[in-house]
Amino acid sequence: MQNELVNNILESISKLNLLELSDLIIKIEKKFNIAVEEEKPEIIKEKFDVYLSEIGDKKINLIKVIKDITNLSLKESKDLVESKNALIKQNVNKIECEEISKKINSAGGKVEIK
What we know:
Layout: H1 2-14, H2 18-31, E1 48-54, H3 59-70, H4 74-82, E2 86-92, H5 94-106, E3 110-113
Antiparallel strand pairs: 1-2, 1-3
Helix pairs in contact: 3-4
GO biological process, one term: translation
Protein name: Large ribosomal subunit protein bL12
Keywords: Ribonucleoprotein, Ribosomal protein
């Protein structure tokens, strides 16, 4: 008897169109107080921005490293080093971020990756 009832309900549900089925699902959730949490896909960031957070005490060496990384002129590299939280490079992959970070750390500076 119970199996027959379930089969009849499933048969009736299978005759519904998508809008009716959606409405039925919403009503079932409300009637039986069912909270359905949607799974949100985890967003994996692939591109990063590298900022200079600290200069350190080897400013001249840092300017040379920044010049090599950014292909800026010596004056532009100096201005970048002297500005607070300057954007060094934008939209770079993780491997390049690590390489930039190592070069800047070896020159006495520190980076922030966002």
